[in-house]
Write a structure and sequence with these properties.
single chain, 234 residues, mainly alpha, Arc Repressor Mutant, subunit A, 2 domains, two-stranded antiparallel ribbon, 10 helices, 70% helix, elongated
């Protein structure tokens, strides 16, 4: 086995500094000169290490400002390689996984979420209602669908966060984000205009607030399934 390059060792040291909180996530890291002095290596070696960490979505360079640790270190746009999978097989499989995982994550959120987290989710859900209502009236359909999706994603993201499960917070948004491309199809545009779409979200949220585990599971599965059947996926 080849011995690791010095830049690889330095990259690992910087990564460990992030993991252990010496370099907080989302904040600017010291300059290359400072890091070279701290790690007792050349500036060139630090620069190579930084490039490697940028390619792994651990660091990000903001032009004209400096280098920062990523808010979600190591989490790329498509870490599972969904983009390279056969679409016909990908979407049914994503929905299948969502049916398995999401109801249980919502149950966790019901028992672990804080009042502040639920209030934030309620505020976003109100925006879902407004966008859904306007879609039903046929107002600025393309713009509203984009806005609708943004609020819909935010609502789900807030519930994932309320579960206080770090794995769910990283994994489930990737699944729902990938499904976005399908939801933009014409069939799903009609589904999004359905008044039932908002009401299903509202019913799920109310079940979460009541901490009714079985109702949460039942409503989540019904909602996910409604999208796949009404959208012509299954």
């Amino acid at each position: 086995m080849a011995r690791p390059l010095l830049s690889e060792k330095v990259a690992d040291k910087i990564k460990q500094m992030i993991i252990h909180g010496e370099l907080p996530t989302g904040e600017q890291i010291p300059s290359e000169q400072e890091l070279s002095q701290r790690l007792n290596v050349s500036v060139r070696t630090v620069r190579e290490a930084v490039k490697a960490l940028v390619s792994c979505n651990i660091l990000e360079i903001q032009r004209g400002i400096g280098t920062f640790t990523c808010a979600d270190p190591g989490l790329g746009d498509d870490p599972f390689g969904f983009e390279f999978m056969d679409t016909n097989a990908l979407y049914p499989d994503l929905v299948e996984i969502r049916l398995i995982l999401e109801p249980e994550i919502f149950v966790l959120a019901a028992h672990r979420g804080t009042q502040a987290e639920f209030e934030a989710a309620a505020a976003v859900l109100e925006q879902v209602r407004i966008a859904n209502e306007k879609l039903g009236q046929g107002d600025n359909a393309d713009e509203l669908i984009e806005r609708f999706w943004t609020y819909d994603m935010q609502f789900h993201q807030l519930i994932y966060q309320a579960s206080h499960n770090a794995v769910a917070n990283r994994m489930l948004p990737l699944i729902t984000k990938t499904l976005y491309q399908l939801y933009r199809s014409e069939l799903f545009r009609k589904w999004r205009k359905s008044k039932n779409f908002y009401s299903r979200h509202q019913m799920i949220f109310e079940a979460v607030l009541r901490k009714n585990d079985e109702e949460i599971r039942k409503l989540c599965r019904a909602h996910i399934s409604s999208g796949t059947t009404e959208g012509g996926l299954l």
